[in-house]
Amino acid sequence: MIWNTSRVSTRISTKDGSLAVRVDGDPHKAPLLLCQRSRGTMDDWDPEFVARLSTTRRVIRFDNLGIGESSGETPNTFGEWQKSCPIA
Q1: Rounded distance between C-alpha atoms, residue 41 and residue 66, angstroms
Q2: Which of 5, 22, 35, 65 holds its CA 20 to 30 A away from the CA of 47?
């Protein structure tokens, strides 16, 4: 089955690089931020999972700095990651 999820990324500039972000679902519904493990990409999320979540929520996925479609250097600690992520 083909699930209708976004394959187009938007870029959000930060002082440390740009974050690649994808958003699915109704923009008027409550947002749900999906955070991938440190080295995972937003493409690792199961399309069916994202599609089902997006029927009731606005689902936001992103690649961490220096990973996948995002630019910049990968933070060394979760504290550095938190400071570099304007959508968290």
Answers
A1: 10
A2: 65
d(CA 33, CA 3): 19
Please tell me whether residue 70 adopts helix, strand or coil conformation.
Answer: coil
Name the β-bridge partners of 22: 61
- Predicted TM-score (pTM) of this structure: 0.84
Q: At 10, which amino acid appears?
A: T
Residue 26 tokens, joined: 């109704």
Parallel, antiparallel, or unpaired: how do β-strands 58-62 and 31-34 relate?
A: parallel
Report the alpha-carbon distance of residue 30 to residue 75 in Å, rounded: 28
**For residues 64 and 74, is the Cβ–Cβ distance under 8 A?**
yes
Q: Per residue of the chain (88 residues), what is the pLDDT tens digit?
A: 677 788 889 999 988 899 999 999 999 999 999 988 778 899 999 999 999 999 999 999 999 899 999 999 988 888 887 777 766 5
